[in-house]
Amino acid sequence: MAKEKIVLAYSGGLDTSIILTWLKEKYDAYIIAACADVGQDDDFAAVEKKAYATGADKCYVLDLKDEFVSEYVWPVVKAGAVYESDYLLGTSMARPLIAQKLVEIAQKEGAGAIAHGATGKGNDQVRFEATIHAIDPSLKIIAPWRTWEFRSREDLIEYARQHDIPIEQSAEKIYSRDQNLWHISHEGGNLEDPWNEHRDDVHVMSVPVEQAPDTPAFVEIDFEKGVPAALNGEKLSPVDLVRELNRIGGENGVGTIDIVENRLVGMKSRGVYETPGGTIIMNAHKALEKLVLDRATLYEKNVLAQRYAQLVYDGLWFTPLREAIDAFVDVTQEVVTGTVRMELYKGNALATAAKSGFSLYSEEFATFGEDEVYNQADAEGFINLFSLSMKIRAIQNLKK
Fold it and tell me: Is 69 in contact with 1 (CB distance < 8 Å)?
């Protein structure tokens, strides 16, 4: 009888390093490690070597950076989706892409199960499994954190020591991190107490604000139909554009937030997120939309942006609702073409100027000086009609 095949979402980090060895102990199975390169600063040759050294029978290393930015990040940027007004959805966007590739590998290899390292307290278990169910519900899911004997990452560190599994974490430095091209998240350790200020050692992609230069940096971003296309007049690939803005933003302390958020599973969590390039892009995109979208469209888009953010956060990427909102967003983005100048200074990313051939701003109408296109006397009739319902209500109240 052929061995069962299990595809493991493998990063080479603490959890999945333990899981790989643990799966070999618990299952008489052929283990296929799948490592997704979505832009994290990893040595993937070393990750692959480690996978084989700790029990993998086969290992895939998938370069997904281009697809991640073009098919996941850009739709979120165009939608203006920000979860709970803070979180730019870095991890949330990457999970459905990774899960989709896990399914494809399982189908290719004839595997019957997919394993992941998400905990039973977090959002990622939902994002992975909802995506798998949406694409191939016949696949079995193995989630060790929900079933195994370990109860903390300290337990994992001890297991790694006993089994000679090389890891970077220690009892003193135990941040749980997730990085991709868009951001890096930090949780755990001293961050679990929200009264503790995060320490400078948490920073990876950006400097602390206090260490940022004392003079501002300026960048200009060109957008084409809502998508960043050039930086300072130079056309760049999506990956290169995000990388360069990460570098510039990071040097100026841009994009670090320290927040308490509402997890999908019902609890609150505290984390530090660094999203330097993404913060610049999102702020620039928002400024350009204000220049080119009419009031009613911008209002409805902002309402849908919140719904879109929640969908992405909750792992509902592969749903008809997300596709329908994308269709609405794409129509709005037809005119979101232009250039925005951004000032980066001590953690701030401020839009200081914007221009577009689709601009709805008219200096002739907006000027406080003399003009010949707007009759201010017309405003009286408008106000009388606009406030008519309030006037009628006041009359009725006075009669009472």
Answer: no
Give me the active site residues, please.
15, 95, 124, 176
Residues 200 and 319 placed together within one structural domain of the fold: yes
Extract the tokens encoding 284: 């620039």
Taking a C-beta distance cutoff of 8 angstroms, is the pair 62, 31 a contact? no
Task: Provide the domain limits for residue 78.
Answer: 4-174
Evaluate whether residue 375 is within a structural domain. no
- CA–CA separation, 126 vs 178, rounded Å? 16
Give residue-wise pLDDT tens across range 254-267.
999 999 999 999 99
- Indicate whether 156 and 197 sit together in one domain: no
Number of structural domains, the chain? 2
Q: Which of 166, 62, 68, 154 is CA-nearest to residue 105?
A: 62
Question: Do 210 and 162 fall into the same domain?
Answer: no
Rounded distance, CA 77 to CA 285, Å?
8
Decide if 394 is inside a domain: no
- Is residue 168 located within the same domain as residue 203? no
Kindly state whether residues 133 and 186 are assigned to the same domain.
no
Q: Contact at 8 Å (CB) between 62 and 68?
A: no
| Residues in CB range of 379: below 8 A, 6 or more apart | none
Do residues 344 and 217 touch, judged by C-beta distance below 8 A?
A: yes
Alpha helices in the chain (DSSP H): 14-26, 44-53, 65-68, 74-79, 90-109, 124-135, 153-162, 238-251, 276-292, 295-313, 320-332, 363-366, 378-386, 388-399
Q: Coil, strand or helix: which one is 263?
A: coil
The amino acid sitting at 61 is V
Q: pLDDT, tens digit, for every residue of 290-333?
A: 999 999 999 999 999 999 999 999 999 999 999 999 999 999 99
Residues 103 and 153 in one domain: yes
pTM beyond 0.85: the answer is yes
Specify whether 170 is located in the same domain as 186: no
